[in-house]
Amino acid sequence: QVQLVQSGSELKKPGASVTVSCKASGFTLPPYSINWFRQAPGQGLDWLGWINTNTGKPTYAQAFTGRFVFSLDTPVTTAYLQISSLKAEDTAVYYCARDRKIIDFDVWGQGTMVTVSS
Amino acid sequence: QSVLTQPPSVSAAPGQKVTISCSGSSSDIGNNYVSWYQQLPGTAPKLLIYDNNQRPSGIPDRFSGSKSGTSATLGITGLQTGDEADYYCGTWDSSLSVGVFGGGTKLTVL
C-alpha cells in the first residue's frame, strides 16, 4: 500500500527543537518530491516548501526560512522536517505530501501534531 | 493571507449542486495547472482534482474541475452529508517559484 507514515505527536517547550519524520511505504521516494505543510488549529493549510529527493535540494516558502529545515536520509526512504527555536505559534499539525509533478499531491502523511507550550 | 482567493464557506442541500471558486493571477492559475483537495474533519487532505479537471482513481464523477483565465472552479453535484469538508485549491506561481494555495472553503450540506 502506497503511503507516507509520519512520526507521532510531540510536546515541546518554547525554544526547543523538534524533528518530524515522513517515511515512504510501498514506493520509493525518488523521483517524487516531498512537500511540507502546516495547519494551525482551526486554520487553513500553509505550504512550507519542498525537497527534491533526487538532489536533496530544499526550497522554502518565504515565511518559513531560517528555523525550518528539510532533509533526507541515505538511502532516501525518509524525509525530515526540523523546526528550531520553537514558538507557541508553531503549534500545529504538520503534513508531508508526495508531489507527482508540480502541486499534484496524491499521497499525504497522516499528520503530526506539534504542541509548543511551557 | 492566502495568495489564491476562495470563499470562506458555501452551503447547499443534499442532492443539490455547489461550486467553489478559486481566484488567482496570471503568474499562478493563469499559467499553471490547478489541483483541489478535500479535507474531512480531523483527517489529512485528499487529492480530488489535478491538472485542472482530472480526477484520480476512486474519486466519483460528482466532483469536477475547470479553469478559465486566472480562476478555477470546483463543482460538486448530488451533494451528500459526507461531502461536508474543507476544500482547498493549489497551484504553482511561476514568477516566485513557490506553491500557492487558497485559504480553504468550508462546505456545509444543510
Task: Please outline what is shown here.
The complex is a heterodimer of chains A (118) and B (110). Chain A has strands spanning 3-6, 10-12, 18-25, 33-39, 46-51, 58-60, 68-72, 78-83, 92-99, 105-108, 112-116.
Note the topology:
The complex is a heterodimer of chains A (118) and B (110).
Chain A lengths: L2 E4 L3 E3 L5 E8 L7 E7 L6 E6 L6 E3 L7 E5 L5 E6 L8 E8 L5 E4 L3 E5 L2
Chain B lengths: L8 E4 L5 E6 L11 E5 L6 E4 L13 E6 L2 E6 L8 E9 L4 E4 L3 E5 L1
Parallel strand pairs in B: 1-9
Antiparallel strand pairs in B: 2-6, 3-4, 3-7, 5-6, 7-8, 7-9
Describe this structure in words.
The complex is a heterodimer of chains A (118) and B (110). Chain A is mainly beta. Chain A has no helices and eleven strands. In chain A, strands 2, 4, 5, 6, 9, 10 and 11 form a seven-stranded mixed β-sheet that branches. The radius of gyration of chain A is 13 Å and the shape is globular. The mean pLDDT of chain A is 96. Chain B is mainly β and 110 residues long. In chain B, 0% of the residues lie in helices and 45% in strands. In chain B, strand 3 and strand 4 form a beta hairpin. Chain B is globular and about 40 Å long. At the A-B interface, strand 5 and strand 10 of A face strand 3, strand 7 and strand 8 of B.
